[in-house]
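New to this. Explain these tokens.
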Amino acid sequence: MTSRRRIRWTALGAGALLAGSLAACGGSSTASGAPTLNWYVNPDNGGQQKIAQDCSAQSNGQYSIEVSILPSDAAQQREQLMRRLAGNDTSIDMMSLDPVFVPETSEAGFLAPVPEDLQQKWSDGVVEGAVTGATWKDQLVAAPFWANTQLLWYRKSVAQAAGLDMTKPVTWDQLIQAAKAQKTAIGVQGQRAESMTVWVNAMIASAGGKVIENPDAKGPDIKLGLESDAGEAAAKVMQDITAAGVGGPGIDNRDEAATANLFQQGGADFMVNWPFVYAQGKSAADEGTMDQAIFDDYGWTTYPAMAEGKAAAPPLGGIDVGVSAFSEHKDAAFAAVSCIVSEQNQAAYMVSDGNPAALESVYDDPTVQEAYPMYDTIRTSLQAAQPRPQTAYYNEVSQGIADQWQPVSGVSDSTPTSSQKYIGEVLKGEKLL
């Protein structure tokens, strides 16, 4: 995605998790004795830095927050953070984490236990999917901050010409037939990367299945649900897109940003993507690099269903904020996190950086509603969203899916079975990724 999207973590595997370390750095305090908390964040438009400044000022001298920005490359982000944590680095007090990263970090003992009162406080009024994504082994281990979800984007004129009623749930099959009839494409993320796992998981969940049946299990004991009716349904969607010729150019190399550009430039009139699409299109129209009439033709609705009458389970993204187990200022860090994820800050961050809030009440804020007219669709989608597989072995599962379900044109009836066998062998240590 562009600068308005979140940067996803790309896990490197259990071996890399504990391999290597950086020398631990001691914490620091201000002249007044109040601790300076170091918050490691994913790159954004500066919104987290602004929140850090505001929370520091509002703490009345209890603490100050300094932001450390991780590298732009997702793999480098994780490598830097995990090596520091594996080295018991006391300079990390708080960290912004993708939900898929939460189980592995918690399982490794790198997150400080969340006090009981904060478990309740950080869960109240938060969309269910975001709470699930911040939970491991029935305990909330991080604070939901923002909770992204994918929508179905479309050109209103094209959907109308195709006879689609976008006020009702639309299925993948209806989209494929409409795109074929209108000689256009469906923008999907087909590259061999995390975005492929997002797509496959969403389709399997929408078909009533689960990629992992027993997420708490150790690697060799994990029961996969790829070889299932839901897995076959997901494979069929990809096969149908290929057969209909509606995947669009470069489908196997497209990430979210490339898909958004394809939609913006008219190469695809339907698309699944995150809400940053709206802000990007608006900026292009305001700057004159895209005709205003094209932007005015943007439409949005909830994620495509796998079957008529069966509600979709859209992808869940976002960021949770955790406190490091090695922080020397845990009490101050927990207080700071409570400030960071406050309703006021979630609303401001959604407007400034385009990242949807985890708190449902934020969507009633007139400022948010003005900036994101699809606010109610985002809220509805988040209420139905399902996280990607929650497991301490997420890297092996995610990379295995990306390897086996790509290229899109290569997906066949046997893909669910072959991918389950392949990932199972990796988890048992019988095969390397």
The first helix runs from residue 14 to 18. The chain has 19 helices and twelve strands.
